[in-house]
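thread from #wetlab-drylab

HS: before we spend reagent money on co-crystallization trials with coenzyme A, can we at least see a predicted complex? here's what I'd submit
DV: go for it
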Amino acid sequence: MAYRADMASSAPLGSIASRARAWRDSAHLEICDALEPWAYGTVRRATRYPGYFDFNSVLVEQDPAMSIDDLVDFADQALVGLAHRRIDFDVVAAAERYRPGFEALGWKVMRLLWMRHETPPPPGPDLAVEQVAYGAVYDLRVAWHREDFPTEDFGAHYPDAREVALRRGARVLAVREADRPIAFAQIERDAQNTEIMQVYVHPDYRGGGRGTAMTRAAIVASPDAQDLWIVADDEGRPKQLYARLGFRPAWTTIEFLRLPGTPVRTAPGPERPTRPR
Ligand SMILES: CC(C)(COP(=O)(O)OP(=O)(O)OC[C@H]1O[C@@H](n2cnc3c(N)ncnc32)[C@H](O)[C@@H]1OP(=O)(O)O)[C@@H](O)C(=O)NCCC(=O)NCCS
C-alpha cells in the first residue's frame, strides 16, 4: 500500500493543521445552512438540527478583543432560541485565557487534539470486526451519551445524529460478544479525507485490547485516504492509544459548551478574565 506518511513527512505542520481545519469546515459547510461572519470568526447554525451542538456554534478564528461577558452576550444573541450555547476556539492561546472564566460559569471545556495518521500500526491481535448498519449499535450510542451527558436525553438527539451521519456517508464497524455488539467505530469520508469519528467500547469490556483492535480495523478500512484523521480529548487517555497506532498531533482547538438546563451565571467581577481593549 502506498503509505500516506510519505506525504506527511515533507509537509510543514502548518499545512497539515490547515488541512485538518479544511476538513472540519467541509462538514460544517455541508450540514449548516447559515454561516454568518462576525468580528472574530463565523456563526454556524444548522436550523434543521437545533440540538446538534457541533453545528450550532460561535466559531472564534481570531483572538477576540472582548471580555468574557461580552463574548457570552454575543453567543446569546447569535444562538438565540437554542437551548445550549457553544463557543469553539481555533485560537488556543486565547481560549486558555478565557477557560477559568467559562469554568466558573459552569460551562464544559473540551480541548481537542486533531491527529493525522502517519505511520502503519504495529501488528496486534485481530478481532472479528464487521461492518454493521447505523442502528445496530444503538444501545452503545445510548451508553456513551449517558457517560458524557448524564442529564441529556439521547432519544431526542438520535434522529438528528443518524440523519447527519447518513448524509455524510458514515460507515459503522462493530465487535460482537455473545452476538451482541460491545464496541464500535464510525468512519466518514470524502474524496481525500477520512475521519474515524467515534470509537467506543462498552465499559464492561475496556482494557482488553478491543479499542485498539477497533481503531486498527478502522485504519485498515481506510487505505486510500490522503488524510486520515481522528480527534481525541487532548487531556484524556485515548490519544496515547491513537499515537501507538501511528496518529500524530496536527491541530488543537477548544470547545466551550453550556448544556441545556445549566443555570445561567454571570462572571464574578474582579477575577473575571478580560482582555485590555
Ligand atoms: C478509549 C476506548 C475506546 C479504549 O478502549 P479499550 O478497549 O479500553 O482500549 P484497549 O484495551 O485497546 O487499550 C487501552 C488503552 O485505551 C486508553 N483508554 C482510554 N480510556 C480508557 C479506559 N477508560 N479504560 C481503559 N483504557 C482506556 C488508554 O490509552 C489505554 O492504554 P493505557 O493502559 O496505556 O493507558 C474506551 O475507553 C472507550 O470507549 N472510552 C469512552 C469513549 C471514548 O472516549 N472514545 C474515544 C473518543 S476520542
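DV: Helices lie at 5-10, 13-31, 68-78, 92-104, 138-148, 154-167, 210-220, 238-244.
HS: ok that's useful, forwarding to the group
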